[in-house]
Description:
The chain is α+β, with helices and mostly antiparallel strands. The chain is built from three helices and twelve strands; from the N terminus they run αβββαβββββββββα. It folds into two domains: 1-34 and 262-291, no CATH class; 35-256, Umud Fragment, subunit A (Ribbon).
Amino acid sequence: MERRKPGKKPRPFWIELPILLVIAFAMTFLIQTFFVKVYYIPSGSMEQTLHGATSGGDRVLVNKIVYDFADPSPGEVVVFSGPPTWAPEAAIGGATTWFGKFFESLGSVVGLAPPNEKDFVKRVIATAGQTVSCCDPQGHLMVDGKPLVEPYIYVDFEFTPGVLDCNSVTRSRRCFGPVTVPPDSLWVMGDHRSNSADSTFGCRTPGGVCQGPIPVGNVIGKAFVVVMPISRWQGIHSYDIQGQDQSSALSGPPPVPGSVGSLPLLAGLAGAALIRRKRLWPSRNSSGFLD
């Protein structure tokens, strides 16, 4: 057996720690930029599917590459950048000092910073070429004249057939349309219909103009799991709202351990640890002996 050749003395861990942290944050930044990212839910527009800041503030993991291979489908929950005409849905109090802004930027790398006021989370209702309207005689939302069964709705506008509907003297605020979704666009709505500034915002009164659809290109990714707080660990289901069995949910991810919420950061830390491990462990030659 060959004796190990003397080499450089390993640097103390307290010297290597800042380097490892920089590597970890760099890898985390790359993961969140291109693959998955943690987003904070600011408003209550998706209750009870997702809780907003006033009721705990869910953090969700968003798949940023899934729509590189397929377009968003009706029933999926997506995070997107609001068009310029969309007003912010929740007032976001950001840092005002350079020190606070620095740590806010650092927190955004690991999903701990306040949300961007121009980012929204909604459910896809219809895609390009489809016509959306409300309501049928029972108050259901319709796509291409067919009513949807939406078990995820939390609270909708009041609707009473024959009393407060789309033909009554005082029209229900649930009513709008019909509106045809233009090419390369999506019609999106919140699960908390009576508290959501979504595609229907502005057009629920006679003569009102809808805030309208969003460009497909504005979609950041698909929200697929709630990772924080711990009490809310669960998958985010997509629903086949336009299928033959409209009440059935598509297979969604099962409840997951809380560590998934820190997946990007954990991956970065793991990468940094492997780099350090490789530097500290002696290499072996092809015969298996230490060099």
